[in-house]
Amino acid sequence: MRLLVTLLGLVCPTAVLPCGLALVLAVDVSGSVSTHEYRIQMDGLAAALRDGIVADALVDQQAQLSLIQWTGSSRQRQTISWQAMHSLEDVSDFAVLVEQDQRRWRNFSTAIGEAVALSIASFDAVPQCTRRVIDVSGDGVSNEGDTPDTWHPALKEKGIIVNALAIETDETDLTAYFFESLIFGEGAFVVTANGFEDYPEQIRRKLQRETTKQLSLLAPQ
């Protein structure tokens, strides 16, 4: 596949290459996330993107990646704009951007619905991508703004899938909450991290499942 992409670029360098996946990485920076835990998330996410299975899948699909930091109401921002994954170098460069992305907010609430809303709007910039996925990770239930399921009709209309990584830190059973209120679409799934220290391993597993076409088709609803 990568050889074909290279040959296409040589024959027609101005051609728009097909995009099989647009993936928003939505990272929790709410008040419950300490500075150390934020660092675990960003370093763990960068390492997961460099995983061989993930990197190859992103390039094979000529994926587009973007990152959103989210916290309380009106505090959601696309901190890394859409980037095309045409080569393994592109994936590596994006991972560096993730590692270097500075935290935008501290000590605010958890508005997951608004994070989903911004993610939906961001896909307007990549209409060429055939599969659209929002990857939400967080350590708490939504406690401000619209609930995540408010946006299910819009997700259905636009054909967007929402998957989630629940970082369990107390007795809330965040995994169940994400199953019931957040994830959406065919094959949507939740992965559980047992605390922030488990996040790097679980985000790697999640991205492998999310970016590999065959696995995503087999994922349970």
Q: What do these coordinates show?
A:
With 221 residues, the protein is of the alpha/beta class. The protein contains nine helices and six strands; from the N terminus they run αβααββααβαβαβαα. The protein has helices at 2-11, 35-50, 52-60, 88-100, 112-122, 152-158, 174-182, 199-211, 213-218; strands spanning 22-28, 64-70, 76-84, 132-138, 160-167, 190-193.
Compact summary:
With 221 residues, this protein is α/β, with parallel strands linked by helices.
Topology, pairings included?
Elements: H1 2-11, E1 22-28, H2 35-50, H3 52-60, E2 64-70, E3 76-84, H4 88-100, H5 112-122, E4 132-138, H6 152-158, E5 160-167, H7 174-182, E6 190-193, H8 199-211, H9 213-218
Parallel strand pairs: 1-2, 1-4, 4-5, 5-6
Antiparallel strand pairs: 2-3
Strand content: 15-25%
Q: Class by helix and strand content? A: alpha/beta
Question: Count of helices?
Answer: 9
Largest sheet features: 6 strands, mixed
CATH C-level: Alpha Beta
Low-pLDDT sequence parts: 8-15, 214-221
Give the proportion of residues in helices. Answer: 40-55%
Named CATH architecture:
3-Layer(aba) Sandwich
> What name does CATH use for the topology?
Rossmann fold
Rg from alpha-carbon coordinates: 17 Å
Question: How confident overall, as mean pLDDT?
Answer: 89
Our count of domains comes out at 1
Distance between the amino and carboxyl termini? 29 Å
Order of helices and strands: HEHHEEHHEHEHEHH
CATH superfamily caption: von Willebrand factor, type A domain
Task: Give the number of DSSP strands.
Answer: 6
Question: What is the overall shape?
Answer: globular
Give me the side-by-side strand order of the main sheet.
3-2-1-4-5-6
